[in-house]
Design goal:
Number of helices: 1
Distance between the termini: 91 Å
Radius of gyration: 30 Å
Shape: rod-shaped
Length: 71
């Protein structure tokens, strides 16, 4: 008979393994959230670059019209 409040070695292993699994799942979740944040930043940066390129093309068209050049 086991003493009150004591866990058997099998129960201890189950608890430890569950904790390890939860820790791994937490690490994976944190990594996924970090990657999601990286992707969101990349999307914002890409949109900003696309906006700048569009502005440059519009400026080039304006320049060409002002000086009578064909682009």
């Amino acid at each position: 008979m086991k003493a009150k409040g004591k866990s058997s070695p099998i129960e201890k292993n189950r608890i430890v393994n569950t904790f390890k699994d939860d820790t791994s799942a937490t690490k994976v979740a944190l990594l996924c959230n970090r990657r999601k944040a990286d992707l969101e930043k990349l999307i914002k940066d890409t949109e900003r670059v696309a906006s700048m390129l569009l502005s440059l093309f519009q400026l080039e068209e304006t320049w060409a019209k002002s000086f009578g050049e064909d682009s």
